[in-house]
Amino acid sequence: MSGFVEKPEPLEVPGLVHLHTGKVRELYQNEAGDLVMVASDRTSAFDWVLPTEIPDKGRILTQLSLWWFDQLADLVPNHVLSTELPAGAPADWQGRTLVCKSLKMAPVECVARGYLTGSGLAEYRESRTVCGLALPEGLVDGSELPAPIFTPATKAAVGEHDENVSYEEVARQVGAETAAQLRQATLAIYGRARDIARDRGILLADTKFEFGYEGETLVIADEVLTPDSSRFWPADQWQPGRAQASFDKQFVRDWLTSAESGWDRAGEQPPPPLPPNIVDATRAKYVEAYERLTGVTWA
Questions:
Q1: In this structure, are 64 and 141 located in the same domain?
Q2: Where is the SAICAR synthetase/ADE2 N-terminal domain (predicted)?
Q3: What is the pLDDT of residue 159?
Q4: From the CB of residue 19, how many other CB atoms can be counted at a distance below 10 Å?
Q5: pLDDT higher than 80, residue 2
Q6: For a 10 Å CB count at each end of the chain, is N or C smaller?
Q7: Which residue from 109, 73, 81, 108 is spatially nearest to 97, judged by alpha carbons?
Q8: Number of domains present in the structure of the chain
C-alpha cells in the first residue's frame, strides 16, 4: 500500500481545468490549451506522499529548474512559455507556477548515472550490470562509473515504483531513432550539468529527465536537475564504499526508518507527520543546494 496519506483537493481557478495531481505538482490547462504546472511544498518518501510539507520547497524546485533551463538552452529547448501567474490564480502560486507548452510526452523516464548507487547499485550487486549494461568488477556504493550511462525507466503511477528497463526495450517502445535521440540528449545534458555542479563543489550522482515532442523537435519538460529528481552529493565528503551525504530529503528518509518515528515501512499504515526539526533540516538542504548551484542567496 502506498500513495497519498491524504490526497489534496485541487484548487478551482477560473479559466483553468485541473488535469492531474502528482506527488509534488498540480497540473492544469488554460483556455489556450497550454499547461499550467504548480509545484507544491509536498514531499514524498518510500512511495508515500507525506502529510507534512517542507516550506518553500515548491518555489525552490521551480526557480532552480528555471536556472538550469537557462544553462541548457543551447543543448535542448524547454517547455516553459511564461512564469506569469494566470488571471485569478492565488497569490501563493507566485514563484511556483510555470505556463508550459503541451507536448507529446515520451513514455520513458530518461535517467543518467555517473556514479553507482540506488537501484543501479542493487542490480550491479546481483549481475554486474545496470539496465543490462555491463560494468567493471570491484565497484562499490558511490563509485564513479568509467563513463556516464543512460539507464531508462518506465513511468509509474503515484505510489508505484518506476521500473528500470533496457535500452533495447525503449527502442521497441518508441522506435530506434527516438530512443537514440533520448539517449544522446540525456547524456549531453548530464555531462553539462555534472561539470557545472562539480565547479560548485557538488557531485551529480544521477538524475532523471522527461522529454516530449513539439512536432519533430525534442523538448525537455517537467522539472530539471533539482534535489527531487537528482542525487547531489557534496564533493568534499564523497567517499565510495558507504552511503553519501546528500542535498535532498535524506533527513526525511532517515527519520521515517528510525525507531523515533515508530513507523513500520513494511506495514500498511501511512507515515506519521514529520517533526519540526526534520522539516527545518530538510528545507535547509534544499536552500543550500539552490544557493551553491546558482550563486544566488535564497530570499
A1: no
A2: 19-268
A3: 53
A4: 13
A5: no
A6: C
A7: 81
A8: 2
Total count of residues recorded for the chain:
299
For residue 157, what pLDDT is reported?
Answer: 62
Is 278 part of a structural domain of the chain?
no
90-102 burial: b if 16+ Cβ within 10 Å, else e: eeebebbbbbbbb
Which residues form the domain of 59?
A: 7-102
Instruction: Give 125-130's long-range contacts (Cβ < 8 A, gap of 24+).
Output: 130/164
Residue 233 contacts residue 202 (beta carbons within 8 Å): yes
* CA atoms of 157 and 165, how far apart (whole Å): 16
β-strands 230-234, 129-130 pairing: unpaired
**How high is the pLDDT of residue 240?**
97
Do residues 48 and 112 both lie within one domain? no
Find the CATH number of the domain harbouring 151: 3.30.470.20
Q: Which residues in the chain belong to E strands, given as ranges?
A: 3-4, 17-21, 25-29, 35-39, 44-45, 48-49, 80-82, 97-100, 104-105, 108-115, 129-130, 133-134, 144-150, 153-154, 163-164, 202-214, 217-221, 230-234
Dist. CA 225–CA 65, nearest whole Å: 7
Q: pTM of the entire structure?
A: 0.93
C-alpha cell of residue 180: 537514440
